[in-house]
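FAQ

Q: What does a record look like?
A: Structure on top, sequence underneath. For example:
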């Protein structure tokens, strides 16, 4: 018994074991984690605020300027138009807030992981870190796809406006870019949910194989609903990767079920 206790003691990297913490200690640790997350968002937000002009502004408005340069008939020069005195400042604050949150996301996910890890079983701990890394990578990849899709989407939207000057306010344009990135990032997290449900035993890869027709319809509806611009280019750019990621999650579920089957078969062979 003493040997077991000594083997278990070094496993806790935090100050106290999660299972032995009182409610007050839990709340104190949660407050500490939240403060760290908030400080990270604020610090990165200040950095984005300082670097907004010209680097971040050029990055955000690059698709719009490319569309204006390639289409002289749109009568635009690629620069935003201020119609209120506070428009530029509020846009800068909004970009700083969202940019600080995105840049601080690795720290936020790390703090969440450190908070929940002591209460997880060894098997759950093994899955926690890959899930966090995959969540971050897929969200950023979805935001990247949204940014790449923005130029043809803007060209399609402006071309259907008829005879009009394409002059956008910075608030409306930045809101569109932010919502597009958030929608694509959230949509690309769809396979993470499916893999988690398969690991938890709620779903199986066989069920997902049988539901692929319904899944196609659901993915099309989700892509149409959460795409802020509503243009077909953006819906296809979101729907097609979601459909491919659906099948990747099915393949991961098949590999997990095969691994579990081997793990249960090996003890049976050993006892025989």
């Amino acid at each position: 018994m003493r040997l077991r206790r000594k083997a278990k003691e070094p496993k806790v990297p935090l100050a106290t074991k999660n299972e032995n913490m009182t409610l007050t200690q839990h709340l104190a640790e949660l407050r500490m984690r939240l403060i760290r997350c908030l400080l990270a968002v604020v610090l990165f937000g200040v950095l984005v605020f300082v670097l907004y002009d010209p680097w971040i502004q050029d990055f955000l408005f690059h698709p719009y300027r490319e569309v204006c340069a390639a289409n002289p008939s749109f009568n635009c020069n690629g620069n935003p138009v201020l119609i209120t005195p506070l428009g530029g400042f509020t846009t800068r604050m909004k970009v700083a807030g969202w940019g600080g949150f995105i840049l601080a996301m690795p720290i936020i996910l790390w703090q969440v992981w450190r908070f929940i890890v002591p209460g997880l079983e060894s098997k759950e701990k093994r899955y926690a870190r890959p899930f966090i890394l995959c969540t971050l990578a897929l969200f950023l990849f979805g935001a990247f796809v949204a940014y790449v899709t923005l130029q043809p989407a803007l060209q399609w939207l402006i071309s259907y406006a008829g005879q009009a000057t394409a002059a956008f306010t910075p608030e409306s344009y930045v809101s569109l870019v932010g919502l597009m990135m958030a929608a694509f990032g959230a949509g690309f997290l769809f396979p993470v949910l499916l893999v988690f449900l398969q690991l938890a035993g709620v779903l199986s890869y066989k069920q997902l194989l049988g539901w692929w027709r319904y899944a196609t319809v659901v993915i099309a509806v989700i892509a149409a609903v959460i795409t802020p611009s509503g243009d077909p280019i953006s819906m296809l750019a979101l729907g097609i990767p979601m459909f491919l990621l659906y099948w990747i999650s099915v393949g991961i579920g098949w590999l997990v079920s095969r691994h579990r089957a081997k793990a249960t078969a090996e003890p049976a062979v050993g006892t025989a």
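Q: Is there anything notable about this one?
A: The CA atoms of residues 60 and 253 lie 38 Å apart.
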